[in-house]
Design brief:
Radius of gyration: 21 Å
Strand content: under 5%
Number of helices: 17
Shape: globular
Low-confidence stretches: 209-215
Mean pLDDT: 84
Oligomer: single chain
Order of helices and strands: HHHHHHHHHHHHHEHHEHHE
Length: 334
């Protein structure tokens, strides 16, 4: 589900909270996603309450929750409290990129560019030491791109991390052009070529926008292992139009992920499906597993519970399909 209106976000938040009540073991991931929807619905006070609930219990990533809470607090006027949380995160020096990027972007959004650059540089020094290459985790790569943008806004000269960010950026529009502070002037141009170029830059920028990067929920594609797919189609033949053959299913997964990556979508993943899990989910939604419209919602819920595996696999890793071959020799081959 991709809500567009505040009321849709509120509805989706309520659905996630109901799901969290059914699956308490997944409460943290579901509460985080619900809080994000509440923010988009304008209910920032309730979002903060959810963050407080999460912080009062043992957490797998407390700094991520604190950074999201700080960003939310600052948006509805609690700047001093937000700054205090941000300073606490900086002192703690978390080893994950997500909290660093969120606080850097929060500072950037409120015109604290110098401090935002300082925070991003502190994070880069810890997470991307000198000599780091293209095998950095995706979240760290995203942090370097954010740092690049902030430094362009400050008109600072390129350093080693900026060069690395340029190298990691694969979209058609170079980062220097994408992050050019003077771009806004082109919006007033009457030259069709300049306007088309600006549209291309905006599309590239949207592909790496903050929402998908700062939330721990990848854009995921569902993968049915062969035995599970056979069982699914035997029990629910209505779904054969979705999955004509197992080979076609694998081909569609790789093609879909490559298309998303080419469009600039970050944080991609694959979630393995099982028939019992799918049937339980259908029952929780008061519908039948033969309903194909349920599949995207099932995929999103699995991803929200942290069941997704990052795509593409790391260099030399086995392919996601389970063939036992390396990804480069299997579905990663050109």
């Amino acid at each position: 589900m991709r809500p567009d209106m505040p009321a849709d976000h509120a509805t989706e938040a309520e659905r996630l909270l109901r799901t969290a009540a059914r699956y308490p073991e997944d409460q943290e991931a579901l509460f985080l996603q619900a809080a994000a929807h509440l923010e988009l619905a304008g209910d920032r006070v309730r979002a903060t309450t959810l963050y407080d609930t999460l912080l009062s219990a043992p957490s797998s990533n407390p700094y991520l929750i604190r950074s999201l809470k700080a960003a939310n607090l600052w948006e509805y006027g609690h700047e001093a409290e937000a700054r205090a949380i941000i300073e606490g995160i900086r002192r703690a020096m978390p080893s994950e990129a997500g909290p660093w990027e969120i606080i850097a972007e929060t500072l950037e959004a409120h015109d604290e560019l110098t401090l935002a650059e300082t925070v991003a540089t502190e994070a880069a020094g810890q997470l991307a030491p000198e000599g780091s290459g293209r095998d950095l985790p995706h979240a760290t790569q995203s942090l370097l791109v954010t740092r690049h943008r902030i430094r362009r806004m400050l008109a600072l000269p390129h350093d080693g991390w900026d060069t690395l960010a340029d190298t990691l950026h694969t979209a058609a529009v170079p980062l220097d052009e994408l992050h050019d502070p003077k771009r806004l002037w082109s919006l007033g141009s009457s030259d069709p070529a300049e306007l088309r170029a600006e549209i291309a830059r905006l599309r590239s920028e949207l592909g790496s926008y903050r929402t998908a990067l700062s939330r721990p929920f990848p854009v995921a594609v569902l993968h049915w292992p062969e035995a599970e797919l056979d069982e699914l189609l035997a029990s629910y033949p209505e779904l054969e139009s979705e999955y004509p053959t197992y080979r076609a299913h694998l081909t569609d997964i790789e093609a879909s992920l490559r298309e998303l990556a080419a469009a600039g979508t970050p944080n991609l993943g694959i979630v393995p499906a099982t028939v019992p899990s799918y049937e339980a989910f259908a029952a929780s939604e008061s519908t039948t597993p033969s309903n194909a419209d349920l599949l995207p919602q099932y995929t999103t819920t699995l991803a929200a519970r942290g069941r997704a595996t990052a795509w593409p696999p790391a260099r030399g890793a086995t392919c996601w399909c389970g063939s036992g071959r390396t990804y480069g020799e299997c579905h990663g081959a050109e």
